Amino acid sequence: MNEEMNNGKKNGGFWKCFFANIGFGILFGVCAGIAFFGVKLVYEISPADELLIMSGLKEAPEENEPELCWTFGDSGVIIAQTNAMEIGAEEVSGEILNVQEVVKQTMPATVSVSLTADYHIYGTVQEVNSAGSGIIVGQNDAELLIVTNYHVVEGGKEITVQFCDGTEGNATVKGQDIPMDLAVMSVPLDELSQETKDNIKIIQLGDSDALEVGEPAIAIGNSLGYGQSVTTGVVSALNREMTLENGEKGTFIQTDAAINQGNSGGALLNNKGQLIGINSNKLGGTYVEGMGYAIPINVAEPIISQLMNKEELVALPEDEQSYLGISGATLSSSQAAMQAVRPPVGVYVAGIIKGGPAELAGLKRGDVITKFEGNSIATMEELQEYLAAYPAGETIILTYERLENGEYAEYECEVILQKKES
Hints:
The chain is α+β, with helices and mostly antiparallel strands. The chain is built from 10 helices and 23 strands.
């Protein structure tokens, strides 16, 4: 009797445990399913990740670490792998865009550039027409400000920019940084129609320091002078060190987005429609395919800001103007290219007036003046404009280069300007 009772208790205990375990399993499954479904709604977990998470081989993403999301273009090619982020109310939202959306958003901030320039070769001057690109980077009360490469506008006598709506405006060079191959042009706002002002926009700047190799890159520019066109690719390399034609060294963004003649000064964009670089055909040229280069925007931005805010030179009364005491000539890039040792672009000192400010400061015949008070000097006319705006007796800093031991070395000197002779 006692043995039967003990067996009954054992059997009853077994079934109680059995049904209790089943109930606990169902309850756990329902709770886990609800929690997992909630996570899936937030993070869009793929079926493959579901299996990994359920099997314990992968953890569900935490709320403060959202997974990367992939965006596909119409062709099915992956064009983005990044997180959307908010930059600020006054800037773009950071939303990942396809190529068509980037172009639609940024084309109003780009311009085509055409100009007539004097080309110096073998002692003769030839008038040539050329084309390039530009990017609208700002405006003030009177001017629309456009950045481009210096070599695009070098020697330009008549510069015309064409906006996205097909209208044109006359531009002048507000300032340039020749070593970095950058220039800022200005177009008077009062020469633009209200319709054009409504159609154009200022580009949004990105962060070239945050770029990663392999991420998308989109180039917009006036390729071959035919008008704005779009090429796409990826960021092929970062901090690519190159030596420019003027001997200056710099680091650049390399991309396989085609950068053709006429693209110089145009925009290299990320897939948020932000400017990450300023394209330059001069860097890559046409020697190889799939290797275009751009000046990183984080390098260019401080220079652009300085050139945008450069004060206009105002000539003093003639009896207050100063002189430097040299005879000089413009040394353009085309003239420099013909020399055995390539000199910098600037003002060639052909002669020194005895006892003048230049001689007292240590300048010699053959020196090339490249900067006046830190501002790049490209022509003799520009140097004369500075001298006309600075009074006699003022001390200024000149930057010049001198040929020594087969190469040009840079120097600075203080010059006390003297009264301009009648």
